[in-house]
Amino acid sequence: MKICDAHVHLGKSGPWQPYVNPTIYANDLIKLFDKYDVEQAIVFPNPNVGDKYPQMNDYIRASVRKYPSRFVGFGRVDPRREDAVKEIDRIKNDLGLTGLKLHPFVECFRPDHPFFNKFFKKVNDLKLPTLFHSGDGFSSPGLILKIAKKYPKLPVIMGHLRESTLSALKESENVYVETSGTLPDIIELSVDIDEDRVLFGSDVPYYRYSAQIAIVETAEISQKAKGKIFHDNFKRLIKNVMRK
Ligand SMILES: [Zn+2]
Q1: C-alpha angle 2-188-192 in degrees, rounded to nearest 5
Q2: Ligand 1 center to residue 168 CA distance, Å?
Q3: Distance CA 97, CA 78 (A)
């Protein structure tokens, strides 16, 4: 089955685990895609401490230009910075990227803090679908859900589907979930809520394709639902946002 992947990092990284080097450039990523039958993926920079995101976004743009049918480019930004609003405008209008990746834990911001109202209004005005890392603390699904509810037309993808993400999926129709690092039984529960809003995600190069694909494969759901998770839901979402 051809796979579409909603969560892939691309480009240079600082040091990570001693046994994993997350730096990966476009040509090598394409080789990995070919090995695992990945047709298309959302790609965005590795985590950084803010000041290097603009040049990392430039690399995403160059990569999308080189492989336009394989990469859907999302930019990254540190929303605390003065120039954050300017940078997301550049991401959309100069670089032509499709969406945003935000990591409230790494970028150290609480999404519902009034300081970020202007930022999220701009994200919504620019129609930039946003993938949030979801997890603990500032990344908790309840805080991200507040943004999704405030901007009901903005597609909000919550990364790393887990039990605490399920209620957000239930509560807001613009919330999508992505499967990297989850477990088969959590996928089964999410499919019960809405099989059209569950996307396959790998979080490559931090996680491995073999394991992340197996998580979805082993879920006890219909073949039709697997087809939607691996492929159809991604294609529909991307088609909709590209049209805007
Ligand atoms: Zn990631």
Answers
A1: 105
A2: 20
A3: 16
Residue 215 near residue 179, CB atoms below 8 Å: yes
Q: Give the distance (Å) from ligand 1 centre to CA of residue 206.
A: 7
Pairing verdict, β 3-9 and 38-44: parallel
Give CA–CA dist 9/217, Å, rounded. 22
List residues, by chain if needed, whose CB lies under 5 Å from ion ligand 1. 203
Q: How far is the CA of 162 from the centre of ligand 1 (A)?
A: 15
> What is the pTM for the complete model shown?
0.97
Q: What separation in angstroms does the CA of 219 have from each of 18, 54, 59, 117, 187?
A: 32, 39, 36, 39, 7
For 26-82, write each residue's pLDDT tens digit.
999 999 999 999 999 999 999 986 589 999 999 999 999 999 999 999 999 999 999
- Of the candidates 239, 164, 166, 225, the one whose C-alpha atom is nearest the C-alpha of residue 1 is 225
Whether the Cβ atoms of residue 177 and residue 156 lie closer than 8 Å to each other: no
- For ligand 1, the distance from its centroid to the CA atom of residue 130, given in whole angstroms, is 13
Residue 200: CA count within 13 A, CB half-sphere:
30
Distance 16 CA to ligand 1 centre (A): 13
User: Is the preceding omega at residue 68 within 30 degrees of 0, hence cis?
Assistant: no
Q: Are strands 99-102 and 130-132 parallel, antiparallel or unpaired?
A: parallel
Q: Are 120 and 93 in contact (CB under 8 A)?
A: no
Q: What average pLDDT does this structure show over 111-122?
A: 97
Closest to 203 (Cα-Cα) out of 230, 233, 180, 231:
180
Report strand pairing: 71-76 vs 99-102. Answer: parallel
